[in-house]
What does this fold into?
Amino acid sequence: MKQLYIDHIADLLSVKDWQVENCVQMFEEGNTIPFISRYRKERTGGLDDASVAEIRHWADVFAEMEKRKATVLETISGLGKLTDELRDRIESCVVASELEDLYLPYRPKRRTRATAAREAGLEPLADKMFSVKVSDPEAEARKYVGGKVATVEDALAGARDIIAERLSETAAQRESMRRIFRTRRIVAKATKAALKAPEASKYRSYFSFSNPIDRIPSHNLLAILRAENEGFLSVSIDADPERCAKKMYYDFCQEHSYPGPKLAEQIRMAVDDCFKRLLEPSITNEVIREAKQKADAESINVFGENLRQLLLSSPVGQKRTMAIDPGFRNGCKIACLDEHGSLLYHTIIFPHPPQNEKIKSIIAVSDMLQKYGIQAVAVGNGTASRETEEFMKKVELPEGCRVWTVSEDGASIYSASEVARKEFPDEDVTVRGAVSIGRRLMDPLAELVKIDPKSLGIGQYQHDVDQNLLKEKLDNTVESCVNSVGVNLNTASSYLLSYVAGIGPSLAENIVAYRTENGGFKTRAELVKVPRLGAKAFEQCAGFLRIHGAANPLDDSAVHPEAYGIVDRMAASLGVTARELVGNAELCSCIKAEDFVGGSFGLPTVNDILKELVKPGRDPRQEAQEFEFSQDIHEIEDLVTGMELPGIVTNITNFGAFVDIGLHDNGLIHASQMGVRGMADPSKVLKLHQQVTVTVLQVDLERNRISLRLKK
It folds into this structure.
């Protein structure tokens, strides 16, 4: 990668040039983000996976820019207009808008008024006027009357069209206008369609809206642009046309010298036309697009952080689980799972209206609890969830067995997916949905990776943001979470394995097929026997895969096989075996990391090895905590202003956090009600699935909206 790109990325991300350069080199060598951030800290200076992912993003951006530059240079060269100065300016670009500004005068374009003027032979007149080489433009214009040019005014009008287009394609003029527009306000007004359409009412707060475009909250901008796309708002930037035209004319005079009075009038007319007809709509679109890119990035970051917290939700672990997908008329679907998440049994009970088979249902559930040795009960949080929880209180649970409420978001998507059909080809969607609820309780990460993150009920305006950037962020987040936790090589599904660094869908299928045919893996080294899993893939994935009960305890840790020799040396220095050292905090404390630094293993890596030896294979996720909704509310009508209630945070956005308080509709804690003075960043105050206490501020029964305040 060229040095100017490396310098720009380093400046953009506030890191050192050598860190960027080393990361880019490792990408080119086929290394993955998790592997680089975890096992190559000496080369990255300890950058975390988010920073490495950012460098990867910008490296890809500039790789595409290089391709674009090649196209631009080839086109301009083909026209015979590529000068050394222009080539240097193009090759030194690091901002896409600058590159496109330089290319604009040479880019193939549709037929314009200036095109017609050139065809009429008026470009020489425009050249003289533009270069201020004529004092009486009317007298000069008479020379061009005839043929396609009927009058002097036609000649002048055509020349002005050419000048206007030339000004609109001048990089300096465009950047000057961008600077002005970026300081102005974005204005939204209701269209006639909005005043007649009931569905436009959700945008009512934007029917007469104005806000500085450089300070507009991302959710406001995305909502405005969605409403504009639906035809309910007209959107503009309130740049002062008169001021902008004066600035353009002043810049023209600075560059070309002041024209005489008669020519000045023609130039001013060309400038006014240029701004109103060409520059204003173009720059408005560009500046709004810039603002949207910023809003997209903010929204996507919120989505990514929510997804990270969701995937790293507390698991209850490998417990025999009863999963209940609650319902009224169609009953409660029950799936009993073993400690590995395999389906043992499924049925339907009808404890609620209209059937009201409570006694029969209690007997059926009690029998299943005993027969299958159930240790945990997962109840979906959808329709009839609260009623099902109340029903389960009438059932005598085995000692230590608890009832947990589990989010159903995306369960229906999973149950109808190809993944679910492969796992349960003989079961219908209701059974698959219940199984998903149970598995989410046991291990949220392993189950949720099977579902498109956009179906998980988190984030804001996810369908309005840049979908490619969103996918990149979400894929990186899932990959980061999977590799930070580690994956059980002998029990993980192919879908979970596919997110392990260096594996992917194809190799994941091969691993599962090998495991099925040969039994569980006994060592990490055995991975190389998997078809198409070569040395590079092994290097990338081995440290993130765990083999519980392996003969070598390091195979059940985050210590990479390439570092096993270091552990052997550490153990030998203490006169013990590696097995005796692993997990022994007292022995590990006797080791000086500096004594084992050497070769490609620096102090950061050795320190990581020591931390891992103290607690090998430690799951970074917290233990699951019990939670119970208030027993005083079951319907929105039960809410009273000032009431304090327990709740669980279900979604975090830039404007606030949504909280489940046990009703069908979640309440909203606005950013101004986070319990601190003024507006607060919700993502810095709350975490997804955090248990909170809230105060009811307002209840809108007509729109089923609940306003809450966070109780500190």
Q: What stands out?
A: The longest helix spans residues 261-311. The chain has 31 helices and 15 strands.
